Amino acid sequence: MDRYHTREWEPHERPTLPGSPSTPLHRPRRRLAFGLVGLLVGITGGLGNALVTANLVYLQGALGATTAEMAWLPAAYVMTNVTMNLLLVKFRQQFGLRAFTEVFLGLYALVTFAHLFVNDLGSAIAVRAAHGMVGAALSSLGLYYMIQAFPTKWRLKALVLGLGTAQLALPLARLFSEDLLQMGEWRGLYLFELGLCLVALGAVLWLKLPPGDRFHTFEPLDFLTFALLAPGVGLLVAVLSLGRIDWWLEAPWIGYALAGSCILILAGLCIEHNRMNPLLMTRWLGSGPILRLGLCVVLIRIVTSEQSTGAVGFLQYLNLGSEQLFSLYAVMLVGSLAGLALSALTIHPEHLFKPLLISLAMMACGAAMDTFSSNLTRPAQMYLSQFLLAFGSTFFLGPTMVLGVRNVISNPRNLVSFSVLFGIAQNLGGLVGAALLGTWQIVREKYHSSLLTDRLPLYDPLVAARVQSGAASYASALPGSAERNAQGLRALASATTREANILAYNDTFMLIAIIAVLTLIWISLRVLWLRSTTRTPAAGSTPS
């Protein structure tokens, strides 16, 4: 990389990585301001999408859309969020992160403002796509602001807090989004999103990050790679988002999209593999440690999907509303905050695997506790399990990031590749988790429905009594016995379907627990292997 905008730095000011800001000494009040702006920017990066994700059912009615059409809203966010990471790091190195953020925060504000006057699905998708682009920049921006808030000796703690802030968006959105809906219906959500965006833009313009070195990094082939990988990843996101809704083997477009995704992604990777100065270091990405790190993040993200796809979906299926789930959402938020705070307090560069093992153990216990759910289960019975899952979902994040950054500092050329890997593993891990768990729940529901139906013959006296009991409740409304018996059969079928779904959710919780335990065993064995191969006997001692 050829430098074109550099300066001499004091040792404590030198930027850690190309494109990152310098770290001069700040007064305590200025450090506090950096920390508050970092918190605001980090939450802004995820809260807008979290508000929509938590209220898809209501927005579906407001927009007059189908379930499959509404699935494009979170999908559009992930599409642009993942693909922008391909160019964001180099843009930051050449033009500065601040320029990127100010431009796209302004674009995001304009699109959100326009959506207030154009109430259709297309404009809603455009807002989510714009938010995905901005969110890719805000996650890095919030991290850099948080780093400015802490002295050098606490740099790892700042890294944990900067990364974990965005994870608080979904539990926060669930807590107060209903109030926004009551105040302004669907416009209440978007007005809040617009206001948050404008406040973040004002804060970024008011308190600017210190300058850093800038380099000439872009090459023409970078844009060809982006033109191939961006639609390829977008098609993959679409398949994962809508596969279980349109069903994997029934909608022809899923096969075409998956084939196109494979072709485009492989073509982009082939170009990168043979370049002199690649955008993505394919050989580094294909190395064992990096593949294992990416797989680890994906598996943990699948486990953390238990809260959104599993527990919340289960309780909503039991017809519990937002008011009844408010206390559970508060427990989830407290668990996330506790995991984030404890991770920041205890992180140590020589013990980065311990938080991963602890997180997986806690999430496995939480998921296993939920496998005993029934139609009498209420939020109070899930407080402990969901606290454990929320705690683990934030406790692992910082140490995992540090594990990857250690490989980047030794060779800054890998920075773009690592940013893309971590972003894809985070986002696609969540999508794979939702797709896997949702599909598993549907399959298991069909299985349990068939078993329960086979065990409910009408000649059984108990079954006949249940049908008659259901029919008797319609005696005042339906005079004919045939109509009452038909309603009694429908009531029995509804009860059977409900119990089959509950059993399917229990199977889903068990699958999550199994994945967590297997991942825990895999990482434990890997740690033991590394220790056994790197341990050297002390001088003069006899090995045991």
Please give a quick description of this structure.
The protein has 20 helices and two strands. It has 544 residues and is an all-alpha fold. It has three domains: 12-215, Growth Hormone, Chain: A, CATH 1.20.1250; 220-278; 285-533, Growth Hormone, Chain: A (Up-down Bundle).
Task: Tell me what you see in this structure.
- The protein is globular.
- The two termini are 50 Å apart.
- It is mainly alpha-helical and 544 residues long.
- Helix 4 runs antiparallel to helix 9, helix 4 runs antiparallel to helix 18 (415-454) and helix 12 (288-304) packs across helix 18.
- It is built from 20 helices and two strands.
- The longest helix has 54 residues, at 481-534.
- The model is unreliable at 536-544 (pLDDT under 50).
- The chain has helices at 28-54, 56-63, 67-70, 72-95, 97-115, 121-148, 155-164, 169-206, 220-246, 252-273, 282-285, 288-304, 306-317, 322-346, 353-370, 383-395, 397-409, 415-454, 461-472, 481-534; strands at 2-5, 214-216.
- It has a two-stranded antiparallel sheet with strand order 1-2.
- The chain has three domains: 12-215, Growth Hormone, Chain: A (Up-down Bundle), CATH 1.20.1250.20; 220-278; 285-533, Growth Hormone, Chain: A.
